[in-house]
Amino acid sequence: MLISSIKSLMDVSISDEKISSIKNVVSKVNGVIDINYIKARQIGRHVWIDLSVFIDPDITIFEGKSISENVRNYLTNKLQNVGNVQVSFIASRT
Hints:
The protein has helices at residues 2-9, 16-27, 61-78, and strands at 11-13, 34-43, 46-55, 82-91. It is α+β, with helices and mostly antiparallel strands. It has a single domain, classed as Cation efflux protein, cytoplasmic domain (Alpha-Beta Plaits), CATH 3.30.70. A hairpin with a 2-residue loop joins strand 2 and strand 3 (46-55). It is elongated and about 40 Å long. The mean pLDDT is 90.
């Protein structure tokens, strides 16, 4: 019980299964070409996600921001206990 309580207060890595779930959700967002990186950690019961996605270099910054907002919204609506999502984007022709 004590160890469980201490772990819930600490910043811990999340499982590969949860990372795969995040990748699955992000890959379904219109405008996301690929995922550059995902960093996620569990703080208490909430998961904090920091990620970077590749987008089309020919779209406007406004459209890129819209894609990053969609990523954030998809993650908070499709996954449980998402506390914070930080999304950056990179123009790429991949």
